[in-house]
Amino acid sequence: MAPEFQKNTMYVSTELESGDVQKNFDDDGREKRTGTLLTASAHIITAVIGSGVLSLAWAIAQLGWVAGPAVLFAFSFITYFTSTLLADSYRSPGPISGKRNYTYMDVVRSHLGGVKVTLCGLAQYANLVGVTIGYTITASISMVAVKRSNCFHKHGHEASCSISSYPYMIIFAVIQIVLSQIPNFHKLSWLSILAAVMSFTYASIGLGLSIAKAAGVGHHVKTSLTGTTVGVDVSGSEKIWKSFQAIGDIAFAYAYSTVLIEIQDTLRSQPPESKVMKRASVAGVSTTTLFYILCGTIGYAAFGNDAPGNFLTGFGFYEPFWLIDFANVCIAVHLIGAYQVFCQPLYGFVEVRCNERWSDSKFITSEYAVQVPCCGVYNVNLFRLVWRTAYVVVTAVIAMIFPFFNDFLGLIGAASFYPLTVYFPIEMHIAQKKIPKYSFTWVWLKILSWTCLIVSLVAAAGSIQGLVTSLKHYKPFSTQQ
């Protein structure tokens, strides 16, 4: 008997012969998934190696040679460990042959249920909104950096070169409005691979420039085991708050649990999705950790305790200006792809819910074939067009109102790290494996969970304090200095 098809515009809803279903559709009746280890790794790298890498030299400057790398390794291990637990939760009750869960909320509903499903939805989708706002800010900063780099090269390093970032936020938003018409996550592989290549490119350029600066003749900067010095670089209270914020920045640098289930849902059935996802997590997390350690430590060696919050746009480097321009263009291109990786799950969530609730509305369910030159036929859905366009516009406007890079990154990282990367994966693993209460495994998993909660609260406090400080000196719609 053929599987029952879901009534949704995203999926085919026609009756087929049983053999055809087996050939062209997966065990849940949806179109056969084609994702591989390569595409999953590309999605992860696109999500992980993001704007966070640019603030790691600053983060290590706050924490020092000992605590900085230690925190980086700790977050990488925790992220990998909990991602393996989350990968096993994709199917329920068993990780190999159980029922598929298409979103993070579906996974929590299957394993935990109750009010935790709502809490998961709030945490995940608020995080996705926050990340897309953060990427709009960062992409515009990188675009502005290209103009400022050329200005400094032409007029000297002491020139003011004040340039507004708002026109570039608008340009970024227009690009996202177009790309947001890509129907779903399954069609994003090409964009993720391009974005992953861009992330490697600009991270490598930043690393190379840092090595050249650190190895330069007469290069002397102040570094220490504990980072910035109280009474010299910062006051006692600033040291505490900035250290907290640095922890939040590092947490954000590893954020991809919010989209892990959606990435796993793109994988083909054989070999088992959980096994492929674990291998992709190893590849993604180990690769990014290597880059993070290199960029963070060598960036700190190059700039010392005065490391800028974003070492490619904060003008720790002025020359060669063309290479810095190219790196910033790569950042912008990468963030164009990363924005889509993070917003597609949100798009899908809203559209599926609206389709279920108003299934008789032609505005929501009907699609119209449009011939696009060089691209073939594209199915236009009016609700998708209006809703996704409105979302991009709203996030761009919020980014214009709150253009605070480091503080915003830290707050996003702190707010999402504990619930989505630690708490839910651990609780679902305990439920799935039926781990006895107060057993050794249960106790150490709970200790890990509570420790990460304390770290997240501390990081959130540092970021909120930084945002409050920034707001005191903020003038809306002013140009960047």
From TrEMBL:
<dbReference type="InterPro" id="IPR013057">
    <property type="entry name" value="AA_transpt_TM"/>
</dbReference>
<dbReference type="GO" id="GO:0005886">
    <property type="term" value="C:plasma membrane"/>
</dbReference>
<comment type="similarity">
    <text>Belongs to the amino acid/polyamine transporter 2 family. Amino acid/auxin permease (AAAP) (TC 2.A.18.2) subfamily.</text>
</comment>
<keyword id="KW-1133">Transmembrane helix</keyword>
<dbReference type="GO" id="GO:0016020">
    <property type="term" value="C:membrane"/>
</dbReference>
<keyword id="KW-1003">Cell membrane</keyword>
<keyword id="KW-0472">Membrane</keyword>
<dbReference type="Pfam" id="PF01490">
    <property type="entry name" value="Aa_trans"/>
</dbReference>
<dbReference type="GO" id="GO:0015171">
    <property type="term" value="F:amino acid transmembrane transporter activity"/>
</dbReference>
<dbReference type="GO" id="GO:0003333">
    <property type="term" value="P:amino acid transmembrane transport"/>
</dbReference>
<protein>
    <submittedName>
        <fullName>Amino acid permease 6</fullName>
    </submittedName>
</protein>
<keyword id="KW-0769">Symport</keyword>
<keyword id="KW-0029">Amino-acid transport</keyword>
<dbReference type="GO" id="GO:0015293">
    <property type="term" value="F:symporter activity"/>
</dbReference>
<keyword id="KW-0812">Transmembrane</keyword>
<keyword id="KW-0813">Transport</keyword>
